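During the first year of the project, the team set up a workflow for recording each protein of interest as an amino acid sequence followed immediately by a discrete structure-token representation. This format lets reviewers and collaborators read both layers of information side by side without switching files. As required by the reporting guidelines, we include two representative entries from the current panel. The first entry is reproduced here exactly as it appears in our internal archive.
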Amino acid sequence: MSSTDARVVVVGAGAAGLSAAHHLVQNGFSNVIVLEATDRIGGRIHTVEFGDGIIELGANWIHGTGKDNSMYTLAKEKGLIMEPYVFLDSEKEKTLTERSTEIDKLTVKKAWKIIEKIEDELEDGIRFKKDLNCQDYIEKRFTEEIDKRKLNDEKKTHMLMFCKIMSGYLGLYVGDDLKLASANCYEMGGEYDDDNDVILSHGYSLVLKALKEDLTDSSLKFKRNVVSIQWKSEQSTVKVICETEDKTVEEYLADHVIVTCSLGHLKQFHDNLFHPSLPQKKIKAIAKMGFGSVGKIFLYYEFPFWRKEESGIVLAWDSSDDDAWYKSIFKFSTIPTCENVLLAWIHGKASKHMETLSLNEVARTCTDILRKFWKKKEIPEPSLTQTSSWSRDPSFLGAYSYFAVDSHKSCISDIAEPLFVADKPIVCFAGEATDSIWFSYAHGARSSGIREANRILKINSTSK
């Protein structure tokens, strides 16, 4: 058997899986099969038509435009990056209170300066007591910063409202309730070469479709739910068992398997998926790492009620009724790919609750919020509503990884460590939660897929 005849099964056709398969095929491997549980490619990248445009139910933009961003360089190579880049303009947002009063721009600017200072402290890796979470640190520091300033009662109230805004803003960054996120490990990833977040005007999914073009139809199999990975045998091969949509059982023998399913899926199913069980070190790392819930609410209006120059509103909630799910929404924004749409982000347990509600209930609640804050009673209910549902989908069970209070950077390397049989990496692991630099990002998923493909390339080139 030549080095490129090795049989490789890739579990998952998201950014990591497609990148791994594409890289292997590009390097001469001909026996590559991708098993995908859903009926589409993309994983947590999912562009859909909505209203008179498109929306991103999953990954929203490419973070950073440097050469180290593997997703950006791929999109650039395929001619999918349109310059000048498309950005949302936060300068055109209003910050409104529940009494429909607008907080003046100077106060907003000062509050964001405090937010940036606190975020910088977290990013600088200040070390706290072991179990300190982000929420407690933010609330303490924000109060300290406010107390330093001589403010009248109204301005102090407005400034304190920004602590909730910060929780919403950073909650989306982390991907979960900040009470669950470690203050010690808030920023352990890479730093961008620039601050450019690129929105792909024709849809993020086109980047992955470009990878799919180099794979044969026979190598990409949809609606195959992998139920068992039997990874120890005398022949040093792996048996992958999957079920089709009609419950037909299929078996695949492989020399290597690359598992790219989400951390949420691993948390829920690893006990039944791997035979024999995973090593205890890997199981503990999977359990300790956080996997958050981030949701989106899209509201489409045939006749937008906002002025074209407005890019949305930031919501300054008061302190009462904090448990209401909708108070996780901290702003409504316009989006450049569908000009008649408002987008609301939501995270943590509130996002999970939102996914249990009907679209009509979500639309009514959002309409009530908009009428209350914007002081426009004539605001209509949206013509169309769409929400994401990553936490309820068994293929994902959440959005992206983060460092929970009792986790550490070693958790990522432990999750990424292959399963070896006779010094051969027989089961490899890829996906954003396995990239120690770009965890939680789509380009981290892509880079991890290429990393594991290179691991297989190397072991087969040395075993000729």
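The second entry, processed by the same pipeline in the following quarter, appears below.
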Amino acid sequence: MLPQKQAEEAIVQSFNETEHDGKEEEREEHSGFNMKSFLWHGGSVYDAWFSCASNQVAQVLLTLPYSFSQLGMLSGILLQLFYGFMGSWTAYLISVLYVEYRSRKEKENVSFKNHVIQWFEVLDGLLGPYWKAAGLAFNCTFLLFGSVIQLIACASNIYYINDRLDKRTWTYIFGACCATTVFIPSFHNYRIWSFLGLGMTTYTAWYLTIASLVHGQVEGVAHTAPKKLVLYFTGATNILYTFGGHAVTVEIMHAMWKPQKFKYIYLLATLYVFTLTLPSAAAVYWAFGDQLLNHSNAFSLLPKSAWRDAAVILMLIHQFITFGFACTPLYFVWEKVIGVHDTKSICLRAVARLPVVVPIWFLAIIFPFFGPINSAVGALLVSFTVYIIPSLAHMLTYRKASARQNAAEKPPSFLPSWTAMYVVNAFIVVWIFVVGFGFGGWASMTNFVRQVDTFGLFAKCYQCAKPGSPLAAAPHH
């Protein structure tokens, strides 16, 4: 038991370092109300909860009704619950592996004073360079396309307020706006943005719910889903993507003053997110049914009103925030590659980060397919980044009896057996590989190719043809 005690002492010593920084900030606030510290410096468990909940549901809130039209009401609800809890479990695994990695490094007297730990570094420290390469490739690609999706969503949403400009032009404009996120140093500085972001998605979710119920069912509404396998698995992978915000979990943990308290934060965030996603998706699908198959953005079916315009504007602001959430880990990786990560100059880091934004901007213009790209990213990237790699990494990290005995974090109280943890992890790996990556990859790529065939690359205005035009009647699913 001595090695375990040493590990615990090491990690406490490490965490005291970040806790000390937090206490210094708290002393600043108590010495006189410091607005900068209040708005800018966030490292509490509440900040982490807001970050997880805000980051978990952004533009995907608008595509879930589209997924319900592909899955049907029952499957849509059950899969949200299933993937929500599965995602919470793998977020827990990531937090355990972070604590394990940090405790081992602290025993080697490694300091993280000016260094943000990232997921690929955790994999490298625990399992070696090949795992680092896999983690880096999947994580960076996922975050890249996650940022692309935010830009597409911005253009798609603003079009419902101002259609004098096409969606491609709006993408140019919002690409420039989102580039300003290079000035936000780290997740430690997202306190006020996370708080506001969650308020914005809460408003939008309940607007969708109430507006759909008030609107009532459209004449001749039909709820025929599920009727095609390709549509069913496309919808399922979009939900897989919904609860796959783990690409920034390690960075959010590292921004905490006491990272060891993160363990159940993601689950608590997911439970709140259920109160937003389930009612809104079910209500919109109940009201509009199969019409959603041709409208991947729920805003497109609801009548124009001040309430809808407010929801659109709030989602635009939130998507700017989520763009920053998705891009910040990419900024960190790029800073480490070019050797400026340790500098304290915000301006130097901001200039160094700008090349990261350019390919994101370009890809958003090439592939402006709002709903289908979510499913493709979910099947091909989220399946590995969020579910398969963390589960396999946990199994391999603790495969030896000595590693289990000296583990910095023991199995949770509700699943106290290592064998039970192995069974759960093995189930996740097999399920996600077969259903998520296999069937989901086939379905989402089939759907994605249909979008390219129908609209072409660099589409000027995806799914915004005027009523009566041939394109308006084209099958967009």
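For the second entry, the following points were noted during internal review. The CA atoms of residues 72 and 225 lie 5 Å apart. The mean pLDDT is 81. Both points are flagged for discussion at the upcoming steering committee meeting.
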